[in-house]
UniProtKB/TrEMBL annotation:
Signal peptide: none annotated. This is Prospero homeobox protein 2. Residues 1-19, 81-92, 357-366 have a biased composition (Polar residues). It comes from Chrysochloris asiatica. It is found in: Nucleus. GO terms for molecular function: DNA-binding transcription factor activity, RNA polymerase II-specific; RNA polymerase II cis-regulatory region sequence-specific DNA binding.
Length: 615
DNA sequence: TGACTTCCTG
DNA sequence: CAGGAAGTCA
């Protein structure tokens, strides 16, 4: 085993630059163990002027300065609770493309007049609702912090040639913080770096460093303590006063603020969070989906589905996130709806979920939520997909200017401020498509490849159909077909390459490889007996592809169209049992607890397994 | 114009 | 599987 691998731990990385000087400064070669360490650290930190033996001290001071600077920087951003571009972009420098994409998505369907793209505009919207007061407070706080910073820096650099905070070091500070945070832990701490979370994060690093260099312990701890206390106190005061001011606004304020927020909600909502994809995919992949390659997607809706959906007329979420009574409203005005929702409803929902519910990113949070009764819990996989967006949103929005402690405080105070930022609430999701529905749809594909939306409505009586749900389900079948046809073409070409000449020789049997592929896709777990009629259709499809490819028709860009047309006319009747709304949920409920041994008698009703081919 | 579909991409 | 573009069709 390579000893270096041990050294590649985050902590070790923190010290990786230690060895650089010895290689760079033309001094005596580093001790063997350090030289070995530098083998990897070299590439990680190519730049270095740290050959000075005082580097440790400088590093320490710079770390302090970086922290203070970052805090102050964060405070400067704090008037916008959403965090502004610089902080955010630092946070996700890797996805400008995605951001652009989202922007495009959002720009399409919005019809709410002039957009208010930046969070700062939101502040503007709240003018007259305490903004001057808040600004004053924040300004005050900023000044306090600056003073604090000066004191700290003076105390910390009694001997060094003080590099002013505004000099070349300016960019260095946050960078260092970022590096450490990156090697560290919480996503909360990376950019905002001004709440206790980051403080703790840094403190951890500092502690570690101190353990390596005990000499710094006293002053470092003292400074940290002082700084933390001061910051905590100052921020606590300011936040309290600001919140009080905000919360004392007349009731109309909430709705009004909510409206103003809606204008910019899409952009913020569209911000993907690295954790978003993770939380989204887990329940899904565990349940039915064969795979989910994209870590960040989603989304969600995805992946990130969150992004567009909210503004788009096709957005599948918005109608589901509002009460049934609102679902009949035109779907292209989802943003107008939430303001109609009783405030206490939103509030109670938020309170009900608490900080360990939607504030958390755990994919399991939803199913564990006590506020959802049994049957709802089964539907949670869907909820986890859709609901995570508000969750992520809230997290992003409040991870910046407020500490975790303040988040709790806000909840205690009443959460109205949070409510402003959450135009949608999970409480208003009435019906949606869950993995059980997906499973059912897949099984239905054995009977029908081209179901009409009306047919779907008949067979999914428990689904509150609207345009978005319908499109989603139609899309499912479209995806099913895609996979189906791809397999057909693949195996048809394979047969041709193997020298088959007579299409009649191509028959899909239950032990064939093609069947296995299809069955795995639509009937994962093999808990449903594929009807014979599907085998016939599959055989026919395979033969059609075989004929077309054999005849060289595949040179025509639209050579598949005739095949599609043929297949589209071969849909079978779907067994009556599929009309039962409980049918898919039974399947899923049983499957979820991973009691697959029970599946047989649950999932193989005679009506299906013995169903004669309909064609 | 809206509903559907395929194709492509992530 | 979802999002989106582009095409078809009534």
């Amino acid at each position: 085993m390579d000893p270096n691998s041990v050294l590649l731990s985050p902590q070790s990385r923190t010290f990786s630059c230690l060895t650089e000087p010895s290689m760079e400064g033309g001094r005596s070669p580093a001790p063997p163990e350090l030289a070995r360490d530098s083998l990897f650290s070299w590439s990680q930190l190519p730049s270095s002027g740290l050959a000075d033996p005082d580097w440790f001290w400088d590093e320490h001071i710079q770390a302090k300065r970086a922290r203070v600077e970052t805090i102050v920087q964060g405070m400067c951003l704090s008037p916008s609770p959403l965090g502004s571009g610089s902080a955010r972009s630092r946070n996700s420098p890797c996805c400008p493309e995605k951001a652009q994409k989202r922007k495009r998505k959002q720009s399409l369907p919005m019809q709410q007049g002039p957009q208010k793209p930046s969070p700062a505009r939101d502040q503007g919207n709240r003018k007259g609702l305490g903004t001057p007061y808040m600004r004053e407070q924040l300004h005050l706080l900023k000044q306090q912090l600056r003073h604090l910073q000066e004191h700290v820096l003076q105390a910390a650099e009694p001997r060094g040639p003080a590099q002013g905070p505004g000099d070349s070091d300016k960019g260095k500070g946050p960078l260092r913080v970022k590096q450490r945070s990156g090697g560290g832990s919480s996503p909360w701490t990376v950019d905002s770096a001004l709440h206790q979370g980051s403080n703790r994060d840094l403190s951890r690093v500092d502690r570690h460093r101190m353990s390596e260099a005990p000499g710094f312990l006293p002053s470092g701890a003292d400074l940290r303590e002082i700084l933390r206390e001061e910051l905590t106190r100052a921020m606590s005061q300011t936040v309290d006063s600001v919140l009080q001011k905000v919360l004392l606004e007349p009731p109309g304020h909430l709705v009004q603020a909510g409206r103003s927020f809606q204008g910019l909600a899409p952009e913020d909502r569209s911000e993907p969070s690295p954790s978003e994809g993770g939380a989204y995919k887990e329940p899904h992949s565990l349940a039915i989906l064969p795979r989910r390659a994209q870590p960040q997607t989603g989304v969600p809706m995805g992946h990130l589905s969150l992004a567009k959906p909210l503004d788009s007329p096709r957005y599948p979420d918005s109608p589901r996130m509002i009460p049934k009574s609102y679902q009949d409203l035109p779907t292209n005005c989802p943003l107008a709806v939430p303001s109609c929702i009783p405030e206490n409803q939103i509030l109670s929902q938020l309170l009900g979920h608490g900080s360990n519910g939607h504030w958390s990113d755990s994919p399991l949070q939803d199913s564990a939520s006590p506020s959802h009764p049994s049957s709802e819990s089964v539907l949670r996989p869907w909820g986890a997909i859709r609901l995570r967006r508000p969750s992520t949103l809230s997290q992003q929005q409040y991870s910046g200017p407020f500490t975790a402690a303040h988040l709790v405080k806000m909840e205690q105070v009443g959460l109205q401020a949070v409510t402003e930022a959450l135009p949608f609430s999970s409480a208003h999701i009435q019906e949606g498509l869950n993995p059980g529905h997906l499973k059912k749809a897949k099984l239905m594909f054995f009977f029908t490849r081209y179901p009409s939306s009306n047919l779907l409505k008949v067979y999914f009586p428990d689904v509150q159909f609207n345009r978005c749900i319908t499109s989603q389900m139609i899309k499912w079948f479209s995806n099913f077909r895609e996979f189906y046809y791809i397999q057909m073409e693949k195996f048809a070409r394979q047969a041709i390459s193997e020298g088959v000449t007579n299409p009649k020789m191509l028959v899909v049997l239950r032990d064939s490889e093609l069947f296995r592929a299809l069955n795995t896709h639509y009937n994962k777990g093999n808990d449903f007996q594929v009807p014979d009629c599907f085998l016939e259709i599959a055989s026919l499809t395979l033969q059609e592809f075989f004929r077309a490819v054999s005849a060289g028709k595949d040179s025509d860009p639209s050579w598949k169209k005739p095949i599609y047309k043929i297949i589209s006319k071969l849909d079978s009747d779907i067994p009556e049992i599929f009309k039962s709304s409980s049918y898919p949920q039974e399947l899923f409920q049983v499957k979820n607890p991973q009691v697959d041994c029970m599946l047989d008698h649950v999932m193989l009703p005679p009506a299906i397994s013995n169903r004669p081919p309909s064609q």
